[in-house]
Amino acid sequence: AGSAMGGRCEPRLLSLLIQRAVQSCCYTSRQCRDPPTADWLEGFGGHVGLETFHGIDGLRVPADEYIRMLLRAPAEQITVHSVIKKHRGLSASNPYLQPSTMTYEVTVRPLELADRVMRMAANIAAEWLEDLPRIADEDEIRWEEHWDEVREVGGGAEGRKTRLPAYGIDHDSSDGSPYRGGNYELLKALATSIAANDTAERLGRLPSRLGEVELLHEHLSQHSFSGELQTNAADVFFTELIQRPYSLRLAPSAIRRSEEEREAGEKEGLQ
């Protein structure tokens, strides 16, 4: 997976990649009428609920540790109880046709699941390499729409009519991995989170930019990228950041000077 992403993989990116690979493998298992394997994989390592989780921090352990755990896990025999409906096209309300339970054994082989997860991760990584340039295209369109809203009466509606979306992949019926649209959306969320925090750290080294750092931290606190994320979280983050009103923020040094001058003035008044 690291080689597919072009070398050494950033830990949070690798974590998201393995998370999405596991979720995709759960989906394909259910599509192949193998829910016991999907249930086992979802719950492995204390990850119950992971299958339907939409966020960037779903793994409880580092990605490489998760894969090692999966590779070391022994095969398990699972007893499955399946309810069979007897009516099969007849009246479901017939009291004499009660469902029966069928019991069977399923062998889960974690070594094979680890191979499936890593293969799926490689596929998703290759798709991300293809999809990444579209983030820049979307950003450009977002700025164009913003300036349309600023310049035009009616919120830039005319400009939007002539502009197609940069990326319109369908979440469920697209080519490639099962959740390609969702994978791309979460990739944008992770990239936005990393970029915002890196920007705040870089600007924090410049005393003249501390007001911007404060604003960015404030915006990040209102649009956290932790836990379950709303749809298009990265787009919402950028749109609302762009639309924030201008504000005057004094740097801490300026505030201290202002307070010192005020205190000096008070002392002079007392004299």
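That was protein one. Protein two is written in the same sequence-then-structure order:
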Amino acid sequence: MARMQFVGAVLVSVVLLLGVAQGQTFCDCDYDIGTFCQSLEVIGMSQGVSLCEETTFVCDKCYCVEGGPHTCAVKDSTALMFTSGIECEVLPVQYAECPPPTPTPSFTPTPTAVPGPLGWVLSAPGEACNDTCTDAAAPCNAFAISDINGYGTSDPAGFSAFMDMQFGVVCSTSNCFAPECNGPSPFYISSSSVCPVSPIQGLADCGATFGVAQRVCCCGDFADCPGP
């Protein structure tokens, strides 16, 4: 004959709901996660009476408990119950229907701000110093840039040594009198290994660029950008 099986989570709940008052529709409840449940399965008949065996398995249970943290609906149903020995029959039962468990919120760490460059920095090709000095605490220092530009006009060899020491760049220093050199000087042109400086510069322009040249930028105070 075909076997009939009832999941024993309902059966276990029946035991836990014995103290629930007749007609009660809600109860305080809680979860039991990863516990053991039982199911009854009809394995045969004897003189018209069903015979059952019990199977235990891991499950998540919901049960009524005084002072529980949740409120559950009390439901009516039927389940296989042992009546005598291994004899069993389907009987009316009550069980707790818990709300879905609230998922544990995942922790998302706050990203740590990455500080921008500090001191003398060689910009990316075609980039202005304002875009190179990205830390608000260490903005582009136009006065320090003008000072190093002036040093380059008065001591070209010394400025070439400065570029080598600071950035590992080997270049020849040359004066650029074109107006478009005023704002971005000094800068480095890698294709020709030249480091132009402007003898007529008033004050460096932190937002200026010169083609794909790399600007010599000071990010921060004078103390962050020591001279040669």
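The longest helix spans residues 142-154. Keep this in mind for the problem set.
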